[in-house]
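G., the chain you wanted modeled:
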Amino acid sequence: MKFLRRFIILLPFLLFINIHSALADQQSEGMEFLIVNMPDQDRATLKHEFLVENTKLAYQALSEVPWGKDIPKDIFLNDILPYATLNERRDNWRVDFHRRFIKIAQSSKSIDQAVIALNKYVFDTLRVAYSADKRPKPDQSPYESIKAHYASCTGLSILLVDALRSVGIPARIAAIAMWPDESGNHTWVEIWDGKWHYTGAAEPNPLDHTWFTVKASQTDAQHPIYASSFKKTGLSFPMRWAPDLKYVPAIDVTKNYKR
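Predicted structure as tokens:
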């Protein structure tokens, strides 16, 4: 039954891929990953062409950066290939962001160097800054944030994750629903360069050095930190702005922040 359900889900997309043979072989694996793991509403609304373009460009970016050959397949599929991170509006950002940011990635000697450079360049160039009051909503898509010029920590993080993914850098969102001192929630970005590191969006500091480093190290089982996942995990990512939505998968990464 599980195989049959998977086949039924994939059938219209596989027929589309078969007609458009440019996605043969390696890239079809990426398409299958997206289709199997995407939220039901995306499967019902996103166009085949959107997924094909997204997939082709993700593989292309991986071939263009110095570290591309070192990215494990599971990391690529879950943390570069996906077209969205949380519940944000589904923007077609990959073509635009790749064009804007690929040269910075190619001129960087390492992922961490590229992340620090892009964490400044992206927000300076797109003129997006943090504001808890001026941003229209907390869970803005990239182009919603660009239009408003302001975003919450979540909107900034979504924007940075997409910019990094567009140039072959594995990235995901991390968040805590409430700090142990009850001072509120927070969202930030994690990147992979052999292991996972963290950084604040629009805060171009060295990796693993942020204003919340000490606070994150004090988390516990009652105040866990979760990272986003596209692949289903059995856990749900905490979204304070949409607490009833449970379709965004999560990974408990609390132990990674202990010092």
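The chain has ten helices and seven strands.

Shout if anything looks off.
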